[in-house]
Design a protein that fits this description.
By secondary structure, the chain is mainly α. The chain contains 5 helices and no strands.
Length: 165
Amino acid sequence: MVYFGGLLGLIGLLTLIFRDGDVAGMPAALAGGVLLVLGVAVGVFGVVRRRRVRRRKIARGEPVPVGDIFQRARALPKLLREVRQGTYADLPRSRPFIWVLALVYLISPIDILPDLLPVIGVTDDAGVAVWLLTSVSTATGLYLNRQRERQRLPGRDLGSGGATR
């Protein structure tokens, strides 16, 4: 929801800045303002919801994603390598294939909803992009969490990343 809110806000901001004509029968300033306010509201709601869900998962002892966006991006090739080799079983082997299908859909000119339709035309692409970003981010965050748990276990070989005393 945070990504979707940011995307809505960005579309609203770009509409305010660059659009001169009407959007779906409304003045561009009104449409852009509504999208901007809606995007901020959805983004704030998403942040609040994410924090509540995280607290609830921690209270139940469930694993939660860790790491910032850069750590997760660096972990993605390692995650894909381990999934391909079969050494990381927490992610279904079909998930990377679905990610590739989502990328192909985003890149391809063929859409379920044509981009020529104002606002509505980009929603299918936006939905796929938001799902893809969220899915990849969550999977790599859980992978980082699992890696940190492995390093904390006593008697476990830490490999080249750490030294034992």
